[in-house]
């Protein structure tokens, strides 16, 4: 998706040398098991641990293909594949869910498309923490391999829910979790002879507050009061602020078919990509949105969709389809029919404020 093979080895060696003195800041300490081991160093936070006294009840986890749906919590609708299944044969994987009160529905569709391999991953978790209803949605678009995107699916939301300030300072928790998960991924891959990376476009709903965080060129778009509005801005190397940040860190932005960091990577922020640190970072840009009667739908998708579908068209379809899974699948089909050559993954969330419990 983003690399030029003939330039890669030469430029990455130069980038690695330029960033060597900053390496300790990127890796942030020793290798750890992110699920259980506290860290004394890092991003101003002493490690992933559960919120003190928190009571967590998982109602849906797309990472668990055997996850059931307890009565009175969610209604699960499976169409083409199990919830945690990644498409392996070029076909679609899709599923949909709705809360029993009908106020939130979500669905996804993921399609390998014309690519030889599948490097997109997704994650959906619906849970309850200390009486707070929490929903987490994520699209992870890998490049140079699938391992980084797969690692995010396995760890990012689990790490976030264990952050001690997840419920009290959600923005801070998201920012620190993104960067620490990146550091842990780099540590876990320190002996691997690969340098893949991944985007992350996530939406976290805590009560009536929606937090959208983005790293890379996947995108989140909402429909509010009938109008489409992007809640993320693609991290491209030719963005004025991103180019300045990269150059201030000692990096370069080069035209090589498109604008690329060091002539290699066509995005300015990503998880992984060890050899392009500290120029390519995993610090997210975060937008907060109050969920009220004007918020109609949310679309999260990899660039395989956005390369062929405009923001307005995506949310318009998401609003008109009764079933969000159908909307997600139609969007992936439209992108493919228009010539998208990438993996295509899309999550659609619909908000129904007029529904009443019981």
Automatic annotation (TrEMBL):
Its EC number is 3.1.3.16. InterPro entries: PP2C (IPR015655), PP2C_BS (IPR000222), PPM-type-like_dom_sf (IPR036457), PPM-type_phosphatase-like_dom (IPR001932). One of its GO terms (molecular function) is protein serine/threonine phosphatase activity. Transmembrane segments: none annotated. Its cofactor is Mg(2+); Mn(2+). Keywords: Hydrolase, Magnesium, Manganese, Metal-binding, Protein phosphatase. GO terms for cellular component: mitochondrion. Pfam families: PP2C. It catalyses: O-phospho-L-seryl-[protein] + H2O = L-seryl-[protein] + phosphate; O-phospho-L-threonyl-[protein] + H2O = L-threonyl-[protein] + phosphate. Belongs to the PP2C family. This is protein-serine/threonine phosphatase. It comes from Hordeum vulgare subsp. vulgare. The gene is LOC123402188.
């Amino acid at each position: 998706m983003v690399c030029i093979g003939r330039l890669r080895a030469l430029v990455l060696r130069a980038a690695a040398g330029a960033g060597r003195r900053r390496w300790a800041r990127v890796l942030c300490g020793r290798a750890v098991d992110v699920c259980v081991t506290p860290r004394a160093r890092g991003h101003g936070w002493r490690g992933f641990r559960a919120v003190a006294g928190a009571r967590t009840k998982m109602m849906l986890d797309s990472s668990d293909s055997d996850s059931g749906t307890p009565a009175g919590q969610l209604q699960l609708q499976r169409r083409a594949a199990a919830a945690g299944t990644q498409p392996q044969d070029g076909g679609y994987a899709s599923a949909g869910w709705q809360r029993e009160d009908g106020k939130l529905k979500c669905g996804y569709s993921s399609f390998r498309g014309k690519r030889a391999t599948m490097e997109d991953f997704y994650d959906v978790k619906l849970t309850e923490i200390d009486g707070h209803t929490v929903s987490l949605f994520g699209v992870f678009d890998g490049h140079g391999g699938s391992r980084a995107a797969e690692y995010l699916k396995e760890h990012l939301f689990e790490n976030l829910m264990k952050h001690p300030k997840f419920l009290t300072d959600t923005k801070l928790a998201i920012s620190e979790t993104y960067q620490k998960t990146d550091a842990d991924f780099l540590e876990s891959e320190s002996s691997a002879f690969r340098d893949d990376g991944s985007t992350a476009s996530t939406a976290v709903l805590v009560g009536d507050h929606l937090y959208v965080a983005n790293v890379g060129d996947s995108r989140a778009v909402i429909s509010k009061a009938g109008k489409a509005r992007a809640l993320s801005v693609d991290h491209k190397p030719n963005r004025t602020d991103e180019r300045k940040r990269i150059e201030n860190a000692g990096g370069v932005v080069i035209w090589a078919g498109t604008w690329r960091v060091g002539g290699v990577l066509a995005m300015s922020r990503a998880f992984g990509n060890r050899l392009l640190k500290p120029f390519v970072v995993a610090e997210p840009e975060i937008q907060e949105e109050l969920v009220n009667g004007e918020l109609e739908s949310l679309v999260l998708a990899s660039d395989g969709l956005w390369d062929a579908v405009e923001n307005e068209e995506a949310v318009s379809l998401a609003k008109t389809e009764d079933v969000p899974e159908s909307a997600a699948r139609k969007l992936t089909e439209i992108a493919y029919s228009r010539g998208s050559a990438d993996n295509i993954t899309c999550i659609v969330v619909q908000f129904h404020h007029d529904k009443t419990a019981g």
